[in-house]
């Protein structure tokens, strides 16, 4: 049964119930009807008294006729009673069918624990009532009903399952939309960061607009028929989103990633399939609902609703026709003498008067209290809290008045409490609104202006400066080495340091502008009201000098320095975002100058930043497109000509086949964080290649792999090395990790990591030795296996006696520490001549071989002994020529 049909049935049932219970009839009409009934009863009594003899005689005749009723009449009466019982059972079955229908529809719509319980109870009640109906109605009248009810229950289960599936599909569709929106929001939030400003690209904004349209179409959808307007609207929005993703596919793949684009397309495909499933499920649900309604109607129509009175047999005809007695006598017996009519009349009159009095008093006792209660209700609705109903009336209404007064008192207390709560709530809302306003404009940690308030105030300053012809300076500050302070002192203490820095910046900026915090350890100061650019620059120097004095944080002195970049309106840029970008570029320059510096923006800074940004983007694409390649340079023992190991060197392969050396892109990769992915690729590729050599033509293969400081400091690094060695089946002794001195600090964590690597069996080499400040301490404390002299230390070994002495002394020190020695950058035969007497030592440089690809390395190894012999022969020839010149000079002298 549909919802409109159920509502019509309820309205008719309410009207029928009111008619039977006189629900709309007042007390006065009811008493009038009762009085009239009693009067009619009194008149009937008088008539009976006056005609008593005839009535008694007629009664005797009826009794005699009843005694003559035969057994067939009794049988007919019994069948009437049995049929009445069957009708009662039929009505109960119809009622239980109605309850089952309502429970099914409620469970299909709500699907709660209570609706499931009612649904199960109604099924059980239907089965019990059907059993009772079958007992009261033997076949064939009840033999078709059980299969129909069984089919009806299956239809109910199908309706519930289809509705539940529809609800799940709707939730799945909404969840997919929410997932796409979250993914898109994350993509927009992490979009390109160019010197401190986030730039949201138009393709992402187009995709977000299509997602908003799809969300609106889905939210406004009703029943999703196959050809409905709602389904067409959602399909149109999905098609528009698909076209937007397809149109911007190349741009999104480059800017976000192939995985991100694939995730968006997969989610869109899931949306389309979910909508199709939803349309099919909706069709099944509507079909089940229609079939369920038709089956309910057919079952109710198949049940009997009227009791048919059985026809009496001829023997049960009217009594007068069957009775053979004669008409009653003219005069009744003496005991039935008619009483006096006047006495009965007087008695009836007295009863009617008493009844009239009681009715009048009852009306007064009910109507007055009810009217007072109605008036009190109106006053209570207007807000009166006083005792509003007076006593007086029948006892029940007095009790009701007392209960009403008690309710009025409780309502008064509740109203006062509600008013008080409302006032407190308004005060709380006002306080929260003020706090939210402060949070929207202030940094929650330091209390100074945040990024949003910075741009509001900066735009206002630019407008005033445009009107007055003044200049506005924007200073971008960064705390030098703040991460070190955070790591050593803890983030809680670091936050308190930031608060102290913010207080000092507020003091500095109080006279000329204001300070703001962008986030992390980045702050800004706006300098206003100046017409002289030099004055702004002098103020920037003041900011740097202001941090020469230590900060007082938790009764402890903390010395920090700041690097500052400055841009000036209108000299450098003319809008707020461009000024901030220019100041950020200047800040980057200040850090490059050595920190605790002030740098002024120049156009070349943005050009450098743009170039670095372009390299960064190309590096991201190179990682995705696998454009890197490893070259290998041998480390040679010049005495034996044997290649003891090779160093893996990364190259960036360009589309034209050329290769870019690492010094052109590794610095940018280090700054952008891409060095983690690149270093992991180098580690994996080098180990895989060495494993192939080890199992192939070079069983003694040994490869040296450069490790970036970020990669080495990752707590997962040792596990990653072990995993790769196990994956490719390469012995750990075939791998040597080269780390620069900046990564090999002598802290406990560094030494623990090195010990773990040595425990695995991996060798550790100190690369670029001679360029740092703590080399000797590193040699003493770190568990190293090799030292590689930097090319700057070897470059002048054949020209400078001082350089040669330093190299010889360092070699002697390394030998005493049982460390292997490698000299990098050997490019001249004279350098080799100085190093040969220092055996054992391995050399690496262009003099022996340039870095080659993996395919070219094995043939190079075969040629290396011959190359070493040629070089040694050259040295011997040069020595003999030098000896001849010396003898010739001696003869001349």
Question: Care to describe what's here?
Answer:
- The chain has 893 residues and is α/β, with parallel strands linked by helices.
- It is built from 29 helices and 19 strands.
- Strands 10, 11, 12, 13, 14, 15, 16, 17, 18 and 19 form a 10-stranded mixed beta sheet that branches. The protein has a 5-stranded mixed beta sheet with strand order 4-5-3-8-9, with helices on both faces. It has a two-stranded antiparallel ribbon with strand order 1-2.
- Helix 4 (71-110) runs antiparallel to helix 5 (113-136), helix 4 (71-110) packs antiparallel against helix 10 (258-302) and helix 21 runs parallel beside helix 23 (717-728).
- The longest helix has 47 residues, at 395-441.
- The model is unreliable at 193-200 and 306-340 (pLDDT under 50).
The dominant shape is elongated
List how many beta strands DSSP finds: 19
Indicate the proportion of strand residues.
Answer: 5-15%
Rounded average pLDDT? 80
SS content category: alpha/beta
How far the N terminus sits from the C terminus, by CA atoms, comes to 132 Å
Count of helices?
Answer: 29
Low-pLDDT residue spans: 193-200, 306-340
Q: Assign a percent range to the helix content.
A: 55-70%
Reported for the largest beta sheet, the result is: 10 strands, mixed
Radius of gyration over C-alpha positions, nearest whole angstrom: 52 Å
Descriptive keywords:
11% strand, elongated, five-stranded mixed beta sheet, ten-stranded mixed beta sheet, single chain, 893 residues, alpha/beta
Short description:
With 893 residues, the chain is an alpha/beta fold. It contains 29 helices and 19 strands. A hairpin with a 2-residue loop joins strand 4 and strand 5.
């Amino acid at each position: 049964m549909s919802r409109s049909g159920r509502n019509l049935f309820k309205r008719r049932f309410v009207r029928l119930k009111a008619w039977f219970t006189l629900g709309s009839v007042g007390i006065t009409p009811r008493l009038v009807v009762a009085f009239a009934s009693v009067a009619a009863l009194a008149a009937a009594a008088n008539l009976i008294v006056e005609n008593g003899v005839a009535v008694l005689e007629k009664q005797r005749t009826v009794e005699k006729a009843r005694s003559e009723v035969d057994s067939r009449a009794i049988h007919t009466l019994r069948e009437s009673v049995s049929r009445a019982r069957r009708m009662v059972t039929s009505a109960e079955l119809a009622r239980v069918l109605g309850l089952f229908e309502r429970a099914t529809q409620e469970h299909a719509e709500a699907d709660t624990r209570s609706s499931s319980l009612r649904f199960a109870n109604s099924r059980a009640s239907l089965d019990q009532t059907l059993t009772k109906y079958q007992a009261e109605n033997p076949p064939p009248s009840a033999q078709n009903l059980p299969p129909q009810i069984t089919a009806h229950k299956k239809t109910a289960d199908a309706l519930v399952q289809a509705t539940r599936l529809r609800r799940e599909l709707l939730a799945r569709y909404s969840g997919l939309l929410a997932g796409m929106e979250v993914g898109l929001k994350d993509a927009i939030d992490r979009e390109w960061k160019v010197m401190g400003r986030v730039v949201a690209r138009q393709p992402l904004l187009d995709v977000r607009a299509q997602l908003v349209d799809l969300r609106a179409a889905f939210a406004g959808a009703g029943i999703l028929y196959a050809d409905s307007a709602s389904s067409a609207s959602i399909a149109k929005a999905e098609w528009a989103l698909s076209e937007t993703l397809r149109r911007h596919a190349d741009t999104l793949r480059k800017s976000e990633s192939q995985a991100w684009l694939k995730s968006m397309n997969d989610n869109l495909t899931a949306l389309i399939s979910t909508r199709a499933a939803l349309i099919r499920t909706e069709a099944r649900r509507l079909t089940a609902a229609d079939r369920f309604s038709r089956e309910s109607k057919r079952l109710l129509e198949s049940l009997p609703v009227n009791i048919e009175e059985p026809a009496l047999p001829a023997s049960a005809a009217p009594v007068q026709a069957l009775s053979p007695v004669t008409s009653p006598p003219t005069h009744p017996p003496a005991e039935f003498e008619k009483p006096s009519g006047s006495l009965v009349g007087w008695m009836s009159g007295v009863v009617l008067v008493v009844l009239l009095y009681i009715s009048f008093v009852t009306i007064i006792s009910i109507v007055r209290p009810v009217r007072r209660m109605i008036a009190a209700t109106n006053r209570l609705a207007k807000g009166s809290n006083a005792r509003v109903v007076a006593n007086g009336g029948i006892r029940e209404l007095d009790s009701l008045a007392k209960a009403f007064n008690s309710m009025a008192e409780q309502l008064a207390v509740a109203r006062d409490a509600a008013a008080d709560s409302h006032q407190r709530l308004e005060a709380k809302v006002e306080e929260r609104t003020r706090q939210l306003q402060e949070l929207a404009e202030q940094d929650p940690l330091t209390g100074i202006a945040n990024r949003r308030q910075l741009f509001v105030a900066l735009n206002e300053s630019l407008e005033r400066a445009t009107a007055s012809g003044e200049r506005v300076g924007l200073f971008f500050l960064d705390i030098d080495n703040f991460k070190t302070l955070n790591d050593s002192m803890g983030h809680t203490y670091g936050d308190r340091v930031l608060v102290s820095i913010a207080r000092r910046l507020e003091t500095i900026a109080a006279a000329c502008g204001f300070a703001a915090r962008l986030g992390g350890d980045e702050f800004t100061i706006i300098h206003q009201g100046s017409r002289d650019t030099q004055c702004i620059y002098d103020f920037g120097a003041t900011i740097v000098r202001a941090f020469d004095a230590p900060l007082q944080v938790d009764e402890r002195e903390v010395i920090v320095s700041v690097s500052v970049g400055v841009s000036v309106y209108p000299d450098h840029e003319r809008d707020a975002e461009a000024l901030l970008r220019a100041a950020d570029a200047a800040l980057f320059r200040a850090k490059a100058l050595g920190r605790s510096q002030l740098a002024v923006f120049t156009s070349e800074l943005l050009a450098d930043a743009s170039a670095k940004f372009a390299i960064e983007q190309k590096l991201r694409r190179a990682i995705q497109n696998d454009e890197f390649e490893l070259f290998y340079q041998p480390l040679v023992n010049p005495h034996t000509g044997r290649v003891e190991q090779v160093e893996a060197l990364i190259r960036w392969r360009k589309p034209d086949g050329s290769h870019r050396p690492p010094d052109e892109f590794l610095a940018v990769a280090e700054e952008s964080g891409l060095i983690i992915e690149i270093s992991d690729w180098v580690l994996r590729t080098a180990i895989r290649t060495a494993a192939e050599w080890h199992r192939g033509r070079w069983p003694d293969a040994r490869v040296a792999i450069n490790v970036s400081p970020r990669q080495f400091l990752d707590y997962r690094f040792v596990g990653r090395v072990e995993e790769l060695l196990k994956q490719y089946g390469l012995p750990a002794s075939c791998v040597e990790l080269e780390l620069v001195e900046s990564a090999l600090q002598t802290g406990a964590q560094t030494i623990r990591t090195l010990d773990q690597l040595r425990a695995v069996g991996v060798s550790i080499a100190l690369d670029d030795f001679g360029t740092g400040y703590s080399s000797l301490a590193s040699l003493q404390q770190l568990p190293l296996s090799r030292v590689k002299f930097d090319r700057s230390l070897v470059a002048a070994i054949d020209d400078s006696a001082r350089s040669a002495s330093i190299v010889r002394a360092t070699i002697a020190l390394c030998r005493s520490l049982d460390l292997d020695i490698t000299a990098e950058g050997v490019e001249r035969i004279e350098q080799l001549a100085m190093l040969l007497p220092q055996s054992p030592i391995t050399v690496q440089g262009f003099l022996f071989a340039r870095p080659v690809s993996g395919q070219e390395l094995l043939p190079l190894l075969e040629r290396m002994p011959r190359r070493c012999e040629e070089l040694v022969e050259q040295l011997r020839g040069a020595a003999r020529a030098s000896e001849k010149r010396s003898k010739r000079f001696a003869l001349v002298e």
